[in-house]
Structures are given as structure tokens and as C-alpha cells.
Amino acid sequence: MLLKALRADARTAEWLRDLESESPGPRDVPLPDTDALPDILLDLSVPHEHINELVALRARLAADPEAMALLARCVTRFVRDMGGIGKGWEPPAFPETAGRLGRCFHLYVFIAALPYVRAHHRERGVPEDVSRRTLADLGRHVSVHHRRAGGPGLLFPWWIALHFHGELFQLGRLQFQRVLPGRRTADAVEAAGLDLDPGAPCLSLHITDFRGPLSPAACDRSLALAREFFARHYPEERHGIALCDSWLLDPQLKRYLPADSNIIRFQDRFRPVHEEKTPDDTAPIGFVFGDPDLPLDGLPRRNSVERAVADHLRGGGHWYGGRGWFPL
């Protein structure tokens, strides 16, 4: 049983206790039936090859009263404070002992939350195409999970929670998350001569895979869309700067990639917040090669980015995250 596996795992057991300490919420959740579910999954860009399995798992979920009660609690907690920055819910990945249903449970939480996030988008006047493409990132992450684990699921359910809580939007090539800057970011902006209230929201940029090259033209278009979108649909928030946290901002990449490459031109948009001192070699391996646990000796060298990441590590170097900003 799903809950037995969750209670046996220390991390999810603590999460479960916290969740069960809250009010249970409604007994019923708007989980689509087996006839409606395939079209909803396809609208969310879930690959066709996973549809039958997810429909079958939905029947298993519906037949488990404890799991359905957990689903109701999760949806109730998740849709609370819809749209609030940093007020969303961060569900953990379930342990392997939770089986196929545990691996896919969060998919059903987000599917059941669809009516709530779509209502929030309508209230904000978010265009249908922006809403659709934002929520369709769920299907991309199912593909990411399949590439690494060989089946449907979500490696990072807390990340998709941002999309379904009204905090993140896909606008062209880039994703934009409404965030609050930290003290170090505010200090860096102030040192550059700009005034930034630490409590004022800004936009955090995210680069998705499976969406083509990160060309300067595509980035310019995304930024133009973002300026117009947030001014129109979140007029009470004045986003003075854009932020990015990514290994793509590691300045060491300039040793390997030409100055006119897409990645270096993306880097050049940003001013550094601080220099990261803690290495993180798994991030570039995971993003570039699809699995952070791949052995170094087996990494391919099919393009300039793969060669840069692999050769730097094989030479004894390390990669670091970067945090940068620029004024909007």
C-alpha cells in the first residue's frame, strides 16, 4: 500500500505527519475519470506511450481509499494561496518502495489541481496559449523522468508545483518565475547604482531543454514577452531586475566556447551577484547528458558543450553554479 511505504521512509513520513496535522479538506477531489484522463494528459504534453499506464494507475489510485484521502489533502494544501510568491507547496519525491503509483502520484495531484490553476489564470487574464504552454511543461518533465528512469513520473515534483501554483510562466524560449530577491542580490544591485527593495519581486529566468537553441533572438523575444505579460497581468508587481541561477553562468565556459556562441552571449547579459565557491559537477552532467550519475569516462563528446563539460572534468576541474542579474 502507498501510505505504508511513505510511513516507512523517514523523509516522507515526516512530510506525511505535517500534512495530516492540517484540516483534511474535501472528501472528493476533481480527479478526471478514465474516459476524460487521456485527453487531459495529451493536453499537458504527456507522451502517448505513457497514457495507457497512467489511466490504469488512476484506477488503482481510485480503488485505494487511503491514497485518495491523501490526494484530497495534497490538493487542498497545494491550491491554498494560489498565486502567492513562495507560498506554494513543495511535495517530496516518493521513495522507490512506493512503486509505480508512488512514482506517479504527484501527476494526479497536479491533474486534480488543474481547475484551480486555470481559474487563477482566467482571473489574471492570462492568455490561453500562455496557460497551455506553461502547464504543458508537466509533459516535458515526464519525458525527462522517462529518459533517466525508464517510465512515467516526476523527478522534481516541487518544480512543477511552481507552474501549477501561478508562480512560473513559459513565455517563448524562457520560463519566468516570480520571486523575491535575497539580501546578496539586493546588495549587488545597490552596488551597481540601482535601487532595489529586498521585498520587491523580480523575475527569475529558467532555460528548458527540448526547446531548441538558446539563441539571442529567442531570448530577446522572451524578454519582450515577459515585460508585456507581467506589466499587464501582475500590474501591482514592479519587476525591476531579472535573475538567473545556473551552471550556464559559470565563467569557466568562456575557456571552451567561442564568444559568439549562444551560451556565452546569454552569459554576457548578466552581472554577477557573487562568486560561487562550492563545486557542483552533477548539474552540468545532468542537464547536458541527461543523468547526473553517469560515469565520467563514458561521457560523449558530440558537440562543443559536451566536450567542454567532459574535458574540463576529465582534466581535474570542477563546475560551479552562477548567479547573475540585469535590469529589466
Molecular structure report:
The protein is globular. The chain starts with a helix and ends with a strand. Helices cover 48% and strands 10% of the residues. The chain has 328 residues and is of the alpha+beta class. Helix 13 (282-289) packs antiparallel against helix 14. The protein has a 6-stranded mixed beta sheet. It is built from 14 helices and 6 strands.
How many individual β-strands?
Answer: 6
Count of DSSP H/I helices: 14
Overall shape: it is globular
The quaternary structure here is: single chain
Helix-strand sequence: HHHHHHHHHEEHEHEHEHHE
What is the residue-mean pLDDT, rounded to a whole number? 92
Helix-residue proportion: 40-55%
Radius of gyration: 21 Å
Numbering strands along the chain, what is their spatial order in the largest sheet? 1-2-3-4-6-5
Strand-residue fraction? Answer: 5-15%
Query: What structural category characterises the helix and strand content?
Result: alpha+beta
Unreliable spans are none
**Major sheet characteristics:** 6 strands, mixed
Span between N and C termini? 50 Å
